[in-house]
Amino acid sequence: MKTIIGLEVHVQLSTATKLFCGCSTDYRDDEPNTHCCPICLGLPGALPRLNIRAVEHGLKVAKALNMEVLEESEFARKNYFYPDLPKGYQITQYDKPLAVAGTVEIEDDEGHEKIVRISRIHLEEDPGRLIHVASGSGYSLVDYNRSGIPLLEIVTEPDLRSPQEARRFLNRLRAILEYLEVFDGDREGGLRVDANISLEGSERVEVKNISSYKGVEKALTFEVTRQRNLLRRGQKVGRETRHFMEARGITTSARSKEEEQDYRYFTEPDLRPFRVADLVTGIELPELPTARKERFMAEYGISLNHARTLTGDPRLADFYEGVAYVDPFLAATWVADTLLGELNYRGMRITDVPANRFIELLALIRSGTITDTVAVQVLREMLDACAAGRPCEPPAVIVKREGLVRGEGEEFADVVRDVIAANPQAVADYRTGKKGALNFLVGQVMKETRGRADPRELGRIVAEYIDTGEV
Amino acid sequence: MAGILEFSPDDRYNAFITTCSEAPFSDGALAGTAIAVKDNISTAGIKTTCGSRILEGYIPPYDAHVVELLKGAGAAIVGKTNMDEFGMGTTTETSAFGPTTNPIDTSRVPGGSSGGSAAAVAAGLVPMALGTDTGGSIRCPAAFCGIVGFKPTYGRVSRYGLIAYANSLEQIGPMARTVEDVSRLLSVIARYDPRDSTMIDRPYDHRPSANVDGLRVGIPEEYFGEGVDARVAETVRDAIGVLEDMGARTVPVSIPAMRYALAAYYVICTGEASSNLARFDGIRYGPAADIRKPWYEAYREIRREKFGTEVRRRIMLGTFALSAGYAGRYYAKAQIARRNIRLDFERAFRSADIIAGPTMPTVAFRLGEKTDPLSLYLSDILTVPANLAGIPAISVPCAGRVDGLPVGLQVMGRRFEDERVIDAAYAYEQGAGR
Q1: Closest Cα of chain B to A267: distance in Å?
Q2: What's the pLDDT at B278?
């Protein structure tokens, strides 16, 4: 049964000021209702004034997604009541959006390139935010700091075929937006998604209110299972709107009232239509993820997988390019395979890593001064220091202090002898041809020597000793 | 020259909702001039009600652009004038603060919705006032009270701070006893303001001239036809005769799309109003909603209780006109009619430099005379076309009266030819020897 998914992605554009007034958008850590004015509070008589930077940001996206930019674009009012909506309508775009008909390239579930069609992008203002005080208090508070933040809504065609594909699409979209410097992916609530999902031949369900990348995959996976189970039991999937409950990982049916909303769209009379065609010609794009990925493969000779991973985030790609000169291949392995995992484990970002220290570490690995095992230990020590806000020591200092310089095989003769003496069963197993036994013994030696020896060399020494009784 | 103007008017006509007993003023073109401001124009520190209970207690934290300009020119803002609730009316009877009466005959309405401003000027309480005109709300009360009122070209005066009724139609404009004063006040308020995106940077710097030699005055048959009181029509023809005596010549013109003007106007203005008035929900200002109730119940309650009948009627009409399944039949059609009216005017202005006719089809009604909303709406027929077309229009009192009541001569001009309209009205005023 084919799964059909389309997404409506809302991203906050990283302009300095709001979409229709001069209030600063950077309200992180500030008191509620401190970034407001008559315009974003919707006070009687205040008028919106379009922030042209937001339009430029939107047009950058239009160009990057190969979209057709309309000659003229205009704003419309979407009328509905809700306490977070100060004017009783949202200024958005309806039948004249910024751009239509674009594409994004992603990998499908088999790893093949595939095209996801984008149907339209448009600008709109973010509403305020409701803060629900302890339940039972009988009231909620409204914070209008967010009111009027520019949002770009990006709508896909129903081209996605699995929750995983949806996740990959979002990752790719995020990378493009970050390359364009129009979006801060780390900002809390900076991305919100509504997803339409159906199983082929059945009704479509809209899941609203998903506010994280992981949440999209989780919500859609839940829905696929729920809808399949309904069909398996001979029931029908009803056309409806559902809410995603992030904490519980489930979707629940929304009140039917919400589905009946009639937004009574009409052209916003306080803003003039604007000519986008003229604006778009002046916009230049930076190198985008796909182009950078291809350049990385050509210029650094690294694998497709490494190039994909490294170009998935512009800051990661920048970091790699800053350290690649030591040895592009080695650097790709260490950044993409090791460093990223260690960062994720610590909840750190690539920008938290001092590039000069990482370069020094790569140099130690490349020269053979330390083994890979030791290198991982040293890297962990460096990252722990960064995470704790301590100065990051040069890796050479750590290696020297802890005595981690790579040793020659002969240095470990005593350890090898002791390990073999202590593990007669493993030795016997090895003699009967069990390869795993040798690995076990090497592991024991590695443990005793804190990884200072090269495991391949150790394997040879251990085998030789068992075979010949000599080191 | 700066100081405090003491203001304690004998407001027997209920022209004011709020008066400022001590109004500060400063130096400038209007230094020390007492000016009344319609109560839908935001004034920092002075309550602004729109004639409605729903804004009870609301004191704007900022000045409308026109108020900033008035203060900058030295004027003393002496009070806020009565009006039909949110501008929705032709008589000032829908105000939550009681009706204003007509100083010429207190058994009559002053017209509306800027009835308070017109009465304050007509009664001599202030020399000048600001009104707003969405479908005739400056010109109608000017005509009924026998003063001059001007609706500028759409986009000539900033709407920043004007509490919106129908954004695409309305303009703030000057009201005074003479065209010269209207012109003076206009030159203060018609200044570019980037905060109003629908504005065009065309400041008004003009001294009226009475030269109408060779001016082609278009006489639209629709302005003298069915529904227009014959004596009013005759009085206005006489007034146009004065312009002809001064060297102007008349040409017949026609605005055939006018038959759709009222319908289009009421669909557009109620549609926009239904959206504009959504913000009055008791959350941020005005009387507080009952927060113990679910929000939608609290909203419903406060809006039902605090909006008057006419406002609720227009919100419902507008909501209907914009609804899915009906918007195509009403709102979209109204936009087409609006475009046709604009085109008709453009065509008429090829053979005429200005267009003249009566401002209102009748003289001022008696208080309480018009209870049926439809017949009230019909009385806007001669004023709404200028709003739909976005063109400048003035009402200047005719020399003749009907039943002792004033009649307004309406002059309309091409977009951004506000100066020519002012000149024609000024010429008439001079020629009629008032």
Answers
A1: 10
A2: 97
Q: Quickly list DSSP for A399-455.
A: HHHHT-SPPPGGGGHHHHHHHHHH-HHHHHHHHTT-HHHHHHHHHHHHHHTTT-S-H
- B183 is an active site residue: no
CB A96 within 8 A of CB A277: no
Mean pLDDT of B300-308: 94
Share of chain B above pLDDT 70, in %: 100
Report in angstroms the alpha-carbon separations of A21 from A54, A66, A74.
12, 30, 17
* Strand partners for A347: none
**Chain A to chain B, count of Cβ pairs less than 8 Å apart?**
106
Q: How far apart are the first and last CA of chain A?
A: 63
Contact B64 A45 (CB under 8 A): yes
Q: Tell me, yes or no, if A148 comes closer than 8 A to chain B by beta carbon.
A: no
- pLDDT tens-digit series, residues A282-333: 888 888 988 899 898 888 888 888 888 899 889 999 999 888 887 888 888 8
For residue A199, pLDDT over 90 is answered with no
Catalytic residue check, B333: no
Tell me how far apart the alpha carbons of residues B19 and B211 are, in angstroms, rounded to a whole number.
40
Region A385-413: mean pLDDT is 76
Beta bridge partners of B76: B34
Using CB atoms, pick whichever of B160, B292, B322 lies closest to residue A138: B292
| Alpha-carbon distance B307 to nearest alpha carbon in chain A (angstroms) | 15
DSSP classification of residue A269: T
B142 against A162, higher pLDDT: B142
Q: Do A38 and B275 touch (CB under 8 A)?
A: no
| Cα gap B110→B115, rounded to integer Å | 5
CA angle, residues A459, A461, A463, in degrees to nearest 5: 65
Can B293 be counted among the known catalytic residues?
no
Mean of pLDDT values over A38-55? 95
CB contact under 8 A, A45 and B196: no
By C-alpha distance, the chain A residue nearest B282 is A83
- Partner-chain residue, chosen from B48, B60, B197, that has the shortest CB–CB distance to A50: B197
> Is the Cβ–Cβ distance between A77 and A265 less than 8 Å?
yes
**Cα Rg for chain B, rounded, in angstroms?**
20
* Candidates B197, B285, B304, B339, partner chain A, best to mutate (most A CBs within 10 A): B197
Confidence at A470, pLDDT banded by 50, 70, 90 = low
The per-residue pLDDT of chain A, averaged, comes to 86
Distance CA B27, CA B15 (A): 27
Chain B environment of A45 (Cβ under 8 Å): 41-42, 60, 64, 159-164
- Residue A350 gets which letter from DSSP? G
Alpha-carbon distance of B142 to B111, in angstroms, equals 8
Which residues of chain A have a CB within 8 Å of the CB of B296? Answer: 81
Q: How confident is the model at residue B285 (pLDDT cuts 50, 70, 90)?
A: confident
Q: CA nearest B295 in A: which residue?
A: A83
Contacts of A89 in chain B (CB under 8 A): 275, 278
Binary contact (B279, A87; C-beta < 8 A): yes
In DSSP terms, B173 is beta-bridged to B131
